[in-house]
Design goal:
Length: 378
């Protein structure tokens, strides 16, 4: 059989998590917390199961959950999404991104992404016959150059995917970046996927400028969110998508025949859990404390560090330690030092190597201390 995705291999997250397990290494590679999700939320899921929410949810999602998401978006970004026609609950952000790409991309269409890019965009674009056009962000600040973006837009460009706070760099888009994005999207009639899975993990009093805040941008955007990232339960694979009705109609045609609907008792539980805004408004404080503890612990290491502004990832520049490739360095760290990280060249255009590895600090203080002890010896 001829492969539809000849260039796709096992994801770096799977490779590094397996290497960590095989070598009994501390796993700071794949992005997931190693502490518990709130017991109250788990209780709510249990209650929903006992209360009989065990059959198919409505196709776009539990109505209570859609209502509270609509309320939350209006509260945070002063933007109203219609609960019946503009909000769909998905099996994580990944399914939302895949479905949006499936709805948008036809054979020959071009889609701009910023590299280093999260790894699920490109295969989905290619699967539907599209071509990915990367715009490379440069270490150490990874800030976008909008002039360069415009140069890469052609008559075939249909879509641009943005991700702020950004995985893996921890960079965030400013208000001005979002205005530039809005300007280019309108000028060239582009559809936007705004991957906002780290919307609540942002530091130093900075603001997350959701695409929802910019009316012209919102009118052409799919906004994607992940409860797994927000509520420390990545294994539940629960997220959602917001989009104007004309875009959401096309999204739902695919969602309906892809999953139809997603986990019912978890949706019910989340609809109650989200009634308390503190459950997500406390996240910047919670994760900033982890970032700060971790950075203080490794401040005398030989890594060069620019503090992450958002996400639960920190880039570590090892150029003063070794001239190995980041892949070699990450492998050696896992095998010899028993700490697993993510080499980030795999996410770059032409696998450009900035000598930066990514660590996930969504970990208990005990794990962060163990990690720091190792990193300080390297
Ligand atoms: N986008 C980005 C930038 C991510 O880091 C991730 C990984 N959590 C996802 C999307 C996918 O999220 P989910 O686990 O909800 O599918
Ligand atoms: N989002 C996670 C990360 O960036 C990985 C999720 C996955 O393994 N696909 O580490």
């Amino acid at each position: 059989m001829i492969s539809k995705l000849p260039n796709v291999t096992t994801s770096i997250f799977t490779i590094m998590s397996k290497m960590a397990a095989d070598n009994k290494a501390l796993n700071l590679s794949q992005g997931f917390p190693n502490f518990k999700s709130d017991p109250f939320l788990i209780e709510l899921v249990h209650k929903a199961m006992k209360d009989g929410f065990n059959q198919y949810a409505p196709m776009p999602g539990d109505i209570g959950l859609r209502e509270i998401i609509g309320h939350k978006t209006n509260l945070l970004h002063l933007k109203k999404y219609n609960v019946d026609s503009e909000i769909t609950i998905t099996a994580g952000a990944t399914q939302a991104i895949f479905t949006a790409i499936a709805a948008i991309i036809n054979k020959g269409d071009e889609a701009i992404i910023f590299t280093p890019a999260y790894d699920c965009y490109e295969p989905a674009i290619e699967l539907f016959g599209g071509k990915t056009i990367p715009v490379q962000l440069k270490a150490p600040f990874y800030m976008p150059n909008w002039g360069e973006v415009e140069q890469k837009i052609s008559t075939k460009t249909k879509l641009i995917i943005v991700n702020s706070p950004h995985n893996p760099s921890g960079m965030i888009f400013s208000e001005d970046d979002m205005l530039q994005l809005q300007f280019l999207a309108e000028k060239h009639n582009l559809i936007v996927i705004s991957d906002e899975v780290y919307e609540h993990i942002i530091f130093d009093g900075l603001t997350h400028y959701s695409a929802a805040r910019f009316p012209e941008l919102a009118s052409r955007s799919f906004i994607v969110a992940s409860f797994g990232k927000t509520f420390h339960n990545t294994g539940w694979k629960m997220g959602y998508c917001l989009a104007p009705e004309n875009l959401m109609n096309e999204f739902k045609k695919i969602h309906q025949y892809n999953v139809f609907s997603v986990n019912s008792p978890i949706q019910r539980a989340l609809s109650e859990y989200l009634q308390t805004p503190e459950h997500y408004l406390s996240l910047p404080r919670f994760y900033q404390q982890k970032r700060d503890v971790f950075l203080e612990l490794i401040k005398d290491s030989r890594f060069k560090i620019i503090p992450s502004k958002g996400t639960y990832f920190q880039m570590l520049d090892f150029s003063e330690i070794s001239n190995e490739t980041d892949l070699q360095f990450a492998e050696r760290l896992t095998k010899d030092y028993k700490i697993a990280t993510i080499p980030t060249s795999v996410f770059n255009e032409s696998k450009e190597d900035f000598k930066q590895i990514r660590v996930c600090f969504a970990k208990t203080e005990e794990t962060l201390q163990k990690a720091a002890t190792i990193l300080n010896t390297i």
